[in-house]
Amino acid sequence: MLEQNVHDSGTLAVVDMGINTHQEPVVYMHKDCHICRAEGFNASTRLLLETAERQLIATLNVIENNNLSPGEIGLSNIARDSLKVVTGDPVSVSHAPIIDSLGAVRKKIHGHTLSDEEMLAIMKDVSEHRYRDIEISSFLSVCAGGRLNIDEIIGLTHAMVSCGKRLSWPGNEPIYDKHCIGGVPGNRTTPIVVAIASAAGLTIPKTSSRAITSPAGTADTLETLFNVDFQIDEMQHIVSEVGACLVWGGAVNLSPADDLMVRIERALDLDGEGQLIASVLSKKIAAGSSHVIIDIPVGDTAKVRTSTEADYLAGLFNRVGMACGIDVRCVVTDGSCPVGKGIGPVQEAHDVVAVLKGTTDAPSDLRDRALTLSANLIDLADACGLAQAATKAKEILDSGFAWDQFQRIADAQGGLKELPSAEFESVQQAHEGGVLLAIDNRRLARLAKLAGAPFCKSAGLRLHVSVGSAVNLKDPLFTLFSESSGERDYALDYYSQNMDMFAIE
Amino acid sequence: MLEQNVHDSGTLAVVDMGINTHQEPVVYMHKDCHICRAEGFNASTRLLLETAERQLIATLNVIENNNLSPGEIGLSNIARDSLKVVTGDPVSVSHAPIIDSLGAVRKKIHGHTLSDEEMLAIMKDVSEHRYRDIEISSFLSVCAGGRLNIDEIIGLTHAMVSCGKRLSWPGNEPIYDKHCIGGVPGNRTTPIVVAIASAAGLTIPKTSSRAITSPAGTADTLETLFNVDFQIDEMQHIVSEVGACLVWGGAVNLSPADDLMVRIERALDLDGEGQLIASVLSKKIAAGSSHVIIDIPVGDTAKVRTSTEADYLAGLFNRVGMACGIDVRCVVTDGSCPVGKGIGPVQEAHDVVAVLKGTTDAPSDLRDRALTLSANLIDLADACGLAQAATKAKEILDSGFAWDQFQRIADAQGGLKELPSAEFESVQQAHEGGVLLAIDNRRLARLAKLAGAPFCKSAGLRLHVSVGSAVNLKDPLFTLFSESSGERDYALDYYSQNMDMFAIE
Fold first, then answer.
1. What range does the domain containing B190 cover?
2. ipTM score of the complex?
3. Identified catalytic residue from A100, A271, A300, A398
């Protein structure tokens, strides 16, 4: 039985557990901890942790062995980082307060419309880690399926912007940006579009993300060519020098609420259009953009499957953009098959550089898409008509101006690096002859990841065939790149069981 | 870099982490684990764990210190128990397969109606721990707010029944049961109703739950009087002997899907009526009941707030009951204030025994409610009319037959125990005189929990005043019971800051 004086003992000593629980803060207390017992805490109770400077709400897991003593509180990485504490620091613990904005979530569950104020309250609490994952999931689920009206999408967009940092570019306006809603592997147009558009005189401070589930994100790819990790003031310096930047967006914290929600949306495979639009546009607004091109690929395995859907989405993007004071143009593109030849950071970087340099091995599909998007950006800026803008974009690329501009950006970001080679290469040959009808994007991406991408930069693969072309028996299909024989073997083992990811007939 | 042969190394050695993560299975792997790296696992990835006999899907947390070696896999308690493994056992690990029934959840997100087959697929996967908490949350959220139609509620009820055990009572039919949808503290009518109804000749095999957020559940209360922990065959033996039982339902596993969902509903404070009806009726059907009385208390702080709501809910209960082949009668009762005098397992047991024995200190409100519910059960059985049934119930109670029958049940369950006394008692006096207008049920329950209930059986409190009666300065308001001075002090400290939980004017 508990006999010590517990009046002033709502305080426990921190133990850094070294456990990565992703974004959900989890804390660990021993089952015999006096606070657990006295307060009636048990596994999954929500707790308020406080230090002199900071507060955090976290979920409790109860430790039933001796890895923790009753006077200690173990913290997961995100809890430790949010509270900025180390092992031994005191933390006071009590029941988490009631989160008022959850009342608005329940209102939405019951089918009511949320006001701007309610959206803001929800986003504020989400961005400050006051929601647990099941609460974020509940909110996202009842907003998906077309359950947000246009005013709610606008309110959500404004609310997301309000919860993060907001960049400004005095003297460099207007600010241009491009975004692809995703779903097509290898679609690495961003570096090319930024080079062409900024060579044409547009200011385009581009932030990109790293891969989460794919073999490479734009930031992973660019990192193999130059440094992409900059703070806001450094980013502003680069843009003032060369009119553009190509940096990783993670350090900038533009929409913390969105970052927390995207993770749950992805896990649930939710495709709420309202959430998508608010997510994309809030980041553009926070980045200080005034003119944005949105690439909407349409295809059976892309995010958007029909052109009707794409048009509807484009209409919403335009209306929300207008309400938020930014000029949005959507470009519907072909999303039926992968783009380029390389998969994995270094391999995709090779494709980007080939297109910019205009070498003979440059993938024409990647080049064409980048030109289309660049032309739209130029037209958005100059209102010169798409035909003239397309001619201008092509001239900038073919003349080498885009490659020059790309090198200027690279220099401003610390200089171009040489792309590394992979330790192990393995060419795989066609197991039969015929026409290559399709490539299973999902399994191809998995193959590249098993080979080590994106963590091993040079790992991945390079296709030697394209969908629709003839293939002879023993023609090289692709080269697999890896940095260890183990990962190579593991990937090839997977391939040997999944050779039908190349449909040859 | 990874150089070992990884072809046959999808196997890791179990480490029992002793971490209680409640119902969500969590596993822990070192960040340098070769499988993590090769498969691209990261924090929150869903994994399939396999032993020779069992499978489990669990969520990954990544360990970044040396508490785990790269060849090990740590298991939370629920993961360990589900796989039935101990430290050192081999477990093979791979990406979790896609859960097909999540397609039906997305269908519901998009506003479509779910078929019986889809409901069954969802409940099967939930009951087999294939859903993570955010997925259960998503499903519950889009089913709440009146979004399940009557056919879906019926489908959900059948699906829940299909996923658990189902009891039968050959030779003892019809089978009677009672249930209270909750929300009123101290409403411990069950033991009294079971004694009266079974003394009247009805077969009533009652299973009850333990407290989750309250200071006592019926099983916690009864456990202070006799053993309540029985397997199904023992339960059947008891019922064949004395026509009734009063056991803990936890060992019986009647609706595993519901058990997993209730936890999320409670955390989200969801009040989906469809879910409530399916939850209650599925357990009754699984328990083999043919006739059920549902107690629906109505009050400002109860689950149901208006009689209109109560009538609507009663209508749904009747229709779903009819479709599922059981006879359901709803009894709408007063839920405006707490029932009885005791709060906490032993204190509530005292009230139950006092009513059964007919002692002078028996709380009349508890007695009246138990008689009303018993009369309804008897009328449901005999169709004798409520007035005659009420007379019969009162006779059984007043004559001592009910107390005799209660003792027979106790004997069949191992014999009546003496109720323990608390080590520490502290009488709290009124801090002012006047009329007691209200008691804050929520804070009163919290006070009892701080004193140690329900884990310390004798902890809790006993009210010496009732709402509506006059109170003089220094009149005893309540006695606090605890098993340690620490818990007593902690509770009294809370009370000293919350004396206005008794509204005296």
1. 176-252+287-412
2. 0.83
3. A271
